[in-house]
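Researcher: Let's continue the batch. This sequence belongs to Torsin-1A, and it's 192 residues. Same format as the previous ones, please.
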Amino acid sequence: AGLQENLERRLFGQHLVSKVVVKAVRGFLNNTNAKKPLALSLHGWTGTGKNFVSRIVAESIYKRGLHSKYVHQFVATLHFPHANSINLYKDQLQSWIRGNVSICPRSLFIFDEMDKMHAGLIDSIKPFLDYYELLDGVSYRQAIFIFLSNAGAEKITEVALDFWRKGRSREDIQLTDIQNALSVSVFNNKNS
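Model: Same format as before. Here are the structure tokens for Torsin-1A:
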């Protein structure tokens, strides 16, 4: 309830985000037998509220929000800046995720600038997101992963502009109106 209230009170112009995030997080937290971790992927231009929504999610789950020792933030260009160090980054990142989920199964990991993250590093995260009961003796089924990216932002803008041209309200946009165009755009983006 706190998440929904916070999003309704503090987030403006992002009706789809509110609806999707509340449904996903509430459903996940209420599921006592999740088959895999929760993974949310938030897309849009800089300034559209991706980090803000991540902060609201963290504040709704943890008393100290982003300052909780169970919330871990990574920025691709800050934490993984050198392409020639990808193997080292992979090992460090996997070890970091494994160690923190071992301490707190309900850990939250936020990855910013996914569109700038090296593909090999993204691949190293994938096993933690899948349907494994245990991976190296650790269950990741209660963890939450939030991925933030500018990839696909132009498609989101295009859909919103098309609605405006047709005289339709922004609030008329449904997830299905954006989801397919966004998926294709992100998948075909060479930098994504």
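Researcher: Any comment?
Model: The chain has two domains: 3-151, 152-186.
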